[in-house]
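Thread: "does anyone have the structure for this chain?"

Original post by V.I.:
We have the sequence but no experimental structure in hand. Need at least a predicted one for the grant figures.
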Amino acid sequence: MEKTRYEVDDEGVALIQLDRPKALNAIDTEMLRELLVHLESAKEDPSVRVVVMSSTDHMAFSAGADIREDLDREGKVERMQLFADLYDSVVGFPKPTLASCHGYTVGGGAEIAVGCDIRVGGSNLQMRFPGAELGVPVGPARLVTLCGLSAAKYLLIGSQMVKADEALRIGLVNRLAPGAATENATIEFARRIAAFEPEGVARLKQMLHRWDDIEGRSSDEGKGQVAWQEDGPGLG
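Reply from O.Q.:
Generated one for you, tokens below.
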């Protein structure tokens, strides 16, 4: 049984949804593999102009990694590698990406969201980066470039739970929508972008990424988090 959904509408918007609502869309190994396949499909499909990352339950985009998944040492390293691959795939995706950040957007879910180009936050948003609490060396590569060093320290070292208004104020999200309408608002914004000339949009994104080097920083961070899992203390 698949744990994600993928569809493309007539206007060129690909919708990728996490679909484990009973688990608050906690991300396990199988889901990571599915998400990577969907992103590759969207990348190779010339009809796709914009990608929206969302979930089937507006109460949670994702509660983060599935801590209940039963994995041996090799499985844990593989899952961490898949997380790093997913973050790099989102950050380096050549077409515009948007995240529908409704409800719990935590850990790995929050990392996916901040890897996207644009984020629409739900009024019920609760976003948190628990790396400091768990000891996981993840987050700076994408957060510093998104909301600045001071806010990144507040979010990562303090591991603060941030709600909608504060997320908008510090730049974690770009606009807000009612919780249950977050996905629709994100898709509406995506369709507006999809109507633009795609080569021009892609060129602007390439310029922004080249001057900022977010892709390079994300790649370096991913290698570090995998090494931490493989050779360091890792997640238990």
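V.I.: this helps a lot. The chain has a mean pLDDT of 96.
O.Q.: and The domain at 4-231 is CATH 3.90.226.10 (2-enoyl-CoA Hydratase; Chain A, domain 1).
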